[in-house]
Design brief:
11 strands; iron; Globin-like; Elongation Factor Tu (Ef-tu), domain 3; binds protoporphyrin IX containing FE; flavoprotein; single chain; alpha/beta; 18% strand; Rossmann fold; 3 domains
């Protein structure tokens, strides 16, 4: 339990963190990796380079400080991060290391303003916040391991099939090397892939949504080829160009809190842009398998026909549904469709049942625009679920 004095100090200094938050976390990461370069095997270097991770951590620490006396308000956000931590192999023993360097960074940036009393209070508060994460993550590790077909950390999988889905997206079918079944997942969840690229000092990890309905024999991911010179593209380029049938990859068990409840009867709208189709397709296929009576609207926006993935599979699943509607919106010239251009409120209003629960996934600009359009056509925000690919930049505490 934190004393009232500690709570008061942490809450009163939290606004200072808001101003200097990213400066502190940038400094923190530099010192952390200088002292513990082995942690570079876990962190995504591309996110680091873009400063996205620093912002995400800063936002969380700030939000946690504001809520230090009612941390339960943060639980949904903690769970979201804990899923990511668990899927990357973050363990209880890492927390004191992070705590040590976070305090050192606060001291470095705030200088004489960081009195011993303030540092002591933040040290205690960090301990409380860390314990919440550790406890949630322990439960997640236990669940991942004890589930049928489950495992705790990373496990070796073999590529049994590689399929080009579009000019940019290729699917990889992954089977456990030990021939065991794979643990089940909820449609929308992701796995982490860990690769050691020849010539690279550290392993690289990436999260990919599972892109099919669950089947016990394999997982499928569908990877978009990113630009090779972009640090974000290192793993996708490696997978596309170097990984083939018979090769192995390390995989951690499914994770994530962006998923739909397949068995609900309410109408559902699945809206995707580009490679954001992967979790949406998994939801569609799972509903078509298990709850074909559910009204489903599947809306996919792609730049053009060449980069449009899963067209045939979507049609196949539509035919299994009793009440399914599917729309494709090409951004560029499509003489055959009046839908050509951006997906806007006018188009969405004609496609979506007002009572739908909506799931949105795609590039950030696409998501922002679709979410605004959904709100504009009267869909309440609590019925709009979305997932950004990459670190969440904002954290909801209300
Ligand atoms: C990701 C917060 C402790 C490793 C994240 C994210 C946040 C966060 C907000 C971004 C989640 C997202 O992608 O949306 C925190 C907080 C911590 C903490 C508040 C302490 C209380 C740790 C520890 C480690 C760690 C101890 C391990 C050394 C990571 C990694 C990622 C991550 C590897 C993924 C980032 C990437 O993409 O590179 N964390 N974290 N975190 N965290 Fe933590």
């Amino acid at each position: 339990m934190l004393s009232q004095k500690t709570i008061d100090i942490v809450k009163s200094t939290a606004p200072v963190l808001e101003v200097t938050g990213t400066e502190i976390t940038t400094r923190f990461y530099k010192m952390l990796f200088d002292a513990h370069p082995e942690l570079l095997n876990i962190f995504n270097h591309a996110n680091q380079q873009q400063g996205r991770q620093q912002t995400a951590l800063a936002n969380t620490v700030y939000a946690a400080a504001q809520n230090i006396d009612k941390l339960e308000a943060l639980l949904p956000a903690v769970k979201n991060i804990a899923h990511k931590h668990r899927s990357l192999g973050v363990k209880a023993e890492h927390y004191p290391i992070v705590g040590e360097f976070l305090l050192k960074a606060i001291k470095d940036v705030l200088k004489e303003d960081a009195t011993d009393e303030i540092l002591q209070a933040w040290g205690e508060a960090y301990g409380v916040i860390a314990n919440v994460f550790i406890s949630v993550e322990n439960d997640m590790y236990n669940e991942a391991e004890t589930k049928e077909g489950g495992w705790e950390d990373f496990k070796e999988f073999t590529i049994i099939k590689k399929v080009e889905e579009s000019a940019l997206i290729t699917s990889f079918y992954l089977q456990p090397k030990d021939q065991s079944i794979v643990s089940s997942y909820l449609p929308g969840q992701y796995i982490s892939i860990r690769v050691q690229i020849p010539g690279q000092e550290y392993t690289l990890n990436r999260q990919y949504s599972l892109s099919s309905a669950y089947t016990p024999e394999w997982y499928r991911i569908s990877v978009k080829r990113e630009a090779e010179h972009d640090p974000k593209g290192q793993v996708s380029t490696y997978l596309h160009d170097k990984i083939d049938v018979g090769d192995s990859l390390e995989v951690s068990a499914p994770a994530g809190d962006f998923y739909c409840d397949v068995n609900e009867p309410t109408p559902i709208a699945l809206i995707s842009g580009g490679v954001g189709v992967t979790p949406m397709y998994s939801m569609l296929a799972s509903i078509a398998d298990k709850n074909a009576a559910r009204p489903v609207t599947f809306i996919h926006a792609a730049r053009n026909k060449e980069v449009h993935a899963f067209a045939e599979e979507v049609t196949e699943n539509m035919s299994k549904l009793e009440n399914g509607k599917s729309y494709v919106v090409y951004e560029q010239d499509d003489a055959n469709s009046e839908l050509t251009g951006y997906l806007n409120a006018d188009k969405l209003e004609k496609m979506i049942d007002q009572n739908s629960v909506c799931y949105v996934c795609g590039p950030v600009a696409f998501m922002e625009s679709v979410i605004q359009s959904l709100v504009k056509i009267g869909i309440p925000t609590e019925r709009i679920n979305y997932e950004f690919f990459g670190p969440s930049l904002a954290i909801e505490t209300k």
